[in-house]
Amino acid sequence: MNNPEGGTPFSNPGGPGQEPGGPQPQRKVSEQWNTLLQDERVQQAQQVGKQYWSFYLNALTRPYSTMKEVTAAHFMNSLITMGLTAVLTALYFLTWFIKWDVSAVFGPGFLKPLLLTAVGLAVACAATYAVLRVEKVSFELKLLITRLGTLLVPAVALLVLAILSLMISLHSFSTTLLVLSFLFVFISINTVMFQYPLHTTSRRFDTLYLIAIANMVTGYIFYKLIASVIAGAAFGLLNSISPFGL
């Protein structure tokens, strides 16, 4: 390529501002991406993701059988499932807030449902633990939580479908899916409790009432979740339509 000012031709066809033989921007990005993929933490995360996906598919197609087969080694998979349940529940309500154009979206529409769902799942684990302790049943806590988390896998799928249904304005259907996903929390509690030999001690307080209390306590947390989100939405709507604010 000739120099327009009549000097020696440019040795760099890309222009005088680019060094000859220097790495192209695309090559730099590619090298950085390869370096990131070779990072030990990224590779560990990929491995965990592959293991969880295999676990998830097995538990989704055969939840009860998988629950019977899991060991405490699957504890992390169950924690991931519980985390996904809390996050997806929060995303459902966040989508609901956005669709209805409610002000102050992030706090009442995402953080509050996230925290309350996490508390509800923790209460579900604690209630199951308490019933088994009162029954004087011998069990491993990590295995107990692993079994609970395994049975929550269908709830994750229902929450994903609920969010997608809400996005395309199938409001009644999405609400039904949300309620069904919450129902799996109670199914998990009762199914796991009956994996152990209940009523092993002779006393006046029957096991049925212990199970009922465990369900009612957990149900109250999820009732508070829905009630507080509805109250937050109502407050946001009033605040958005009021000319003076609230």
TrEMBL record:
Q: Where is this region: Disordered?
A: 1-29
List the keywords (alphabetical).
Answer: Membrane, Transmembrane, Transmembrane helix
Membrane-crossing segments per the record: 75-98, 110-132, 144-170, 176-196, 208-238
Q: Where is the composition biased (Polar residues)?
A: 1-11
This chain belongs to the protein called Uncharacterized protein
To which species is this protein native?
Answer: Paenibacillus tritici
